[in-house]
Amino acid sequence: MTLLLWLAGAALLALGYALWWQRRRQAALQRQLDLAAAELQHLQQACARLAPAGVVDRMVADGLHGAADLPPERKVVTALFSDLVGFTAMSEKLEPAVLARVLDGYFQRISDAVHAHSGHVSTWLGDGMLAYFGALRPNPWQCADAVRCALAMVEAMRRYNDELARDGLPPLALGIGIHRGPGLAGMIGSRERREYGFVGRTVNLAARVQSLTRTHGVEILVTSAVQCELGDAFRLDAMPPEQVKGIDAPVPTWAVRGAA
After folding, report:
1. Under DSSP, is residue 231 helix (H, G, I), strand (E, B) or coil?
2. Are residues 91 and 39 in the same domain?
3. Element (H, E) at 260
4. How confident is the model at residue 127 (pLDDT cuts 50, 70, 90)?
5. Where does 143-209 show beta strands of DSSP type E?
6. Residue 32 domain boundaries
7. Beta carbons of 128 and 63 less than 8 angstroms apart
8. I need a labelling partner for 187 at 20 to 30 A (CA). Which of 70, 77, 175, 258 fits?
9. pLDDT tens digit string along 160-178?
């Protein structure tokens, strides 16, 4: 009987030790998983400063080790270029801290509109912004998404202007140009700094069309390449063709008045 009790006790002791060791091993594995998850999150946040979230997700899913492994691609993309009208004159009258606050509010609102309509902000150019639709993944509705984004940006600025007026600040006015065309999409830059971008004539024409908003006195202009993709989804007014830098023939544009 004594031997049986001793064997039973030894068995229980061995079982207890095995359970303790299993729990300890599971705790160590959990710590490793938590550490790996934290490192992955940190990596994604760091990469997001250079590449949009869709690119980072693709790199992780494909097992790519860095931006250099992401191959460049030729794509047809819709480029949206926006700029503040008359901002230079206004900026000379505001204190630096006030000016920075006004700009931050402006950038946040138009950035939110881009993200809400399946686009991504490529870069800020002074008080201007360049955004793309259809660059990260195929999007057959990229032109409509870009135009809806532009309308949302204009509406967001109207609401923002109400806030600025309550603070005694002058209103902001937007000019937006949209064009669709081919180009090279990928991680582009020097060894020290690389960013996900889109290079081609499409970007230049979108910027030129944006400058025509001042000529025609409208907020949103699209090219014929965009207009032919929209169908009857929006109310458009044809504008007189205008000569722009870098283009031989006058460029026809359409003013977007709203959704149909």
Report:
1. coil
2. no
3. none
4. confident
5. 173-189, 194-199
6. 1-49
7. no
8. 175
9. 999 999 998 889 999 999 9
